[in-house]
Write a structure and sequence with these properties.
The protein is built from 15 helices and no strands. By secondary structure, it is mainly α. It has a single domain (34-52, 61-348), classed as Ribonucleotide Reductase, subunit A, CATH 1.10.620. α4 (87-122) packs parallel to α6 (162-173), α4 (87-122) packs antiparallel against α7 (177-202) and α6 packs antiparallel against α7. The longest helix has 36 residues, at 87-122. The chain is globular, with a radius of gyration of 20 Å.
Length: 353
């Protein structure tokens, strides 16, 4: 069955062309770079994996709650709309909400695949080109894994949401290489890490948890790649240039905060959309969840030097400034350790059968 036949809502096109122009840079200095990037490149080479064999695809999803997630993760949980639903209707909501969420992961990973290929062409450092090439393979693997999860297990998918599409359009159409890093490596990947962690750490279904754990092992390196590159580059820019990038980061964060309201799901299920959206926007639980999604972004933004009054004021208004002092390197190390724990449990289960 084709992907278009699995979409919960009709799609007019299955391709999206973004016009743009940027310079492709060849670098003849092959010793250029930093030891930190070289080490990351070595790690990227050593930690390549095969989504077909590392993940146990024989596991099934529960049709009542595919990933085994708590209902509190659904943005309309506790609302009058939710309270009116029967048990069967709630099971349908879980299926659609989780398929919708994983669909956005899938589309975002393809965005990362294209962005990283663009970085290989654009970035002037040879070490950055080397590492970005390993990330291209990572992102292809992530697209493969989420597509397989949706097609074979959920048998349901959703098109890309307008906020994510708009952000990808802005990132891919900008001719400056650092804006691709900022938009994808720091902002989109950072938000994805927090969303993946929520599923990895709360899902009762081991297939769903393992997909996210293994993807996170790669994504943590990708955010580190953006952090290492931009923290060296941004001090070289003028204040006006840094202000422009702060403005972009603020707008992108507000845009991404609105990604998780699920408007398409409520329309598809025939629910009162405005009522559902209003509840999701007011819900204290949802506000906490949306704030937590920025736990991986804020410390990186601070470290790369985009920490002027405008961005601090915006983050204060969003209730996320407190994440600034999180140890991003420690989070990366934990993401790698958790993936290894999943490997150990998989191997133990294999030996016992």
């Amino acid at each position: 069955m084709a992907s278009v036949d699995r979409y919960a809502v009709p799609v007019d096109h299955v391709e999206w062309a973004i016009p743009g122009a940027f310079d492709t840079v060849f670098e003849w200095e092959y010793e250029d770079g930093t030891q930190a990037l070289r080490r990351l490149y070595e790690k990227g080479k050593n930690l390549q994996w095969n989504a077909s064999s590392r993940i146990d695809w024989s596991q099934d999803l529960d049709p009542e709650n595919p990933q085994g997630l708590p209902d509190e993760a659904i943005v309309i949980f506790g609302s009058p709309v939710w309270e009116r639903l029967t048990s069967k209707e709630r099971a349908t909501v879980r299926h659609h909400v989780q398929a919708w969420s994983n669909s956005q992961f899938l589309h975002g990973e393809q965005g990362a695949l294209v962005c990283t290929a663009k970085i290989v062409q654009q970035v002037p450092s040879i070490d950055a080109k080397f590492y970005a090439a390993t990330q291209v393979m990572d992102e292809a693997r992530h697209v493969e894994a989420y597509a397989r999860l949706l097609h074979e297990k959920f048998e349901l998918a959703y098109p890309i949401t307008p906020p994510l599409r708009r952000l990808l359009n802005d990132v891919l159409s900008d001719s400056r290489w650092d804006m691709t890093y900022l938009g994808m490596q720091v902002l989109i990947e950072g938000l994805a890490l927090a969303a993946f962690a929520n599923i990895r750490d709360t899902a009762q279904n081991q297939l769903a948890a393992s997909v996210n754990a293994y993807v996170m092992q790669d994504e943590a390196r990708h955010v580190a790649f953006g952090r290492l590159t931009l923290r060296d580059y941004y001090p070289q820019l003028t204040q006006a240039e840094r202000d422009e990038r702060e403005e972009f980061a603020v707008e992108a964060c507000y845009l991404m905060r609105d990604r998780f309201l699920g408007e398409e799901v409520w329309e598809r299920l025939g629910f009162p959309v405005e009522e559902c959206m209003a509840w999701a926007s007011r819900s204290e639980l949802m506000q906490q969840f949306r704030s937590a999604l920025f736990s991986r972004i804020v410390p990186t933004i601070k470290e790369i030097g985009l920490w002027g009054p405008k961005i601090r004021r915006a983050y204060t208004n969003m209730g996320i400034l407190g994440f600034a002092d999180i140890d991003a390197a420690a989070l990366q190390a934990n993401d790698e350790a958790v993936a290894q724990e999943f490997d150990a449990r998989r191997d133990a289960a294999s030996r016992s059968t």
